[in-house]
């Protein structure tokens, strides 16, 4: 009489063990494993690139440090892992041409931190190309997440600085200098979901050693990202400019208060 219940209980125990493993995905594992270093990286980006919101030189230099990394991935990672619709090399070049001029490549030199990044990617490519998936996942999801937030903040800051001059706000048209973060006629939500699903499908048959290697490499992604972000130039100049503007406004307020008090006494 109790045999069926015992059998059902055993089935439930097996399902409790199997379901977490079935629902486990590589992208989720990489995301959880890098949660802390990701927070540190976000803090660095916010502290460093916050000045890029109303400074095109800082923004352009931020694009420049990641240009070679995305280019490398798009030239070396197969399209079943990194579909063409996500490629950004041309968009990087369009934006850099807008900010730095048509001849920007003639004066361009890869900086040391970026070269170190590329050397590591080349080493991975020779050792085990599948480890590049860690870079593909974190960099492109970063572009589709934090990159979108930064771009929106920059658009708002630019509109504020321009005192809301008349501009076309047409989502079908890409504003000059914003090609990188623009995906016309595509849902960012769907792009992110499809990207995660694709990587999870590709990695579904990876053994535990390879999955662990990808998780370990995920930490390296943020370490290298942080190094090239630190090399972004123009922040110090913008900080000084902001400080001068703040002091100027403060002095203006103090002087206005002084005049008000003088007039009141009279």
TrEMBL record:
This is Heme oxygenase. The gene is putative Heme oxygenase 1. GO terms for molecular function: heme oxygenase (decyclizing) activity; metal ion binding. Keywords: Heme, Iron, Membrane, Metal-binding, Signal, Transmembrane, Transmembrane helix. The keyword Metal-binding applies. Residues 1-24 form the signal peptide. It comes from the Eukaryota. Belongs to the heme oxygenase family. It catalyses: heme b + 3 reduced [NADPH--hemoprotein reductase] + 3 O2 = biliverdin IXalpha + CO + Fe(2+) + 3 oxidized [NADPH--hemoprotein reductase] + 3 H2O + H(+). Its EC number is 1.14.14.18. It comes from Clunio marinus. Heme b binds at residues 31, 38, 137, 196. The keyword Iron applies. CDD domains: HemeO. One of its GO terms (biological process) is heme oxidation. The chain crosses the membrane at residues 132-151, 243-261.
């Amino acid at each position: 009489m109790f045999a069926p219940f015992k059998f059902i209980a055993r089935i439930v125990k097996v399902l409790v063990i199997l379901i977490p493993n079935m629902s486990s995905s590589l992208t989720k594992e990489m995301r959880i494993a890098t949660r802390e270093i990701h927070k540190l990286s976000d803090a660095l980006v916010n502290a460093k690139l916050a000045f890029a919101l109303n400074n095109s030189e800082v923004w352009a230099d931020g694009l420049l440090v990641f240009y070679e990394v995305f280019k490398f991935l798009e030239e070396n990672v197969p399209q079943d892992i990194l579909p063409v619709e996500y490629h950004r090399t041309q968009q990087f070049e369009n934006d850099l041409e807008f900010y730095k001029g048509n001849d920007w490549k003639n004066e361009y030199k890869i900086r040391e931190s970026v070269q170190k990044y590329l050397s590591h990617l080349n080493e991975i490519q020779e050792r085990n190309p599948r480890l590049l998936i860690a870079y593909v996942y974190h960099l492109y999801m970063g572009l589709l997440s934090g990159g979108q937030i930064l771009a929106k903040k920059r658009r708002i800051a630019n509109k504020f600085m321009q005192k809301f001059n008349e501009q076309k706000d047409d989502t079908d048209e890409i504003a000059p200098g914003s090609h990188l973060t623009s995906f016309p006629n595509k849902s960012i939500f769907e792009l992110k979901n499809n990207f995660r699903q694709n990587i999870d499908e590709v990695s579904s048959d990876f053994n535990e050693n390879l999955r662990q290697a990808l998780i370990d490499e995920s930490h390296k992604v943020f370490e290298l990202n942080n190094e090239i972000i630190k090399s972004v130039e123009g922040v110090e100049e913008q900080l000084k400019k902001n400080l001068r503007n703040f002091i100027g406004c403060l002095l203006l307020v103090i002087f206005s208060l002084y005049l008000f008090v003088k007039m009141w006494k009279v």
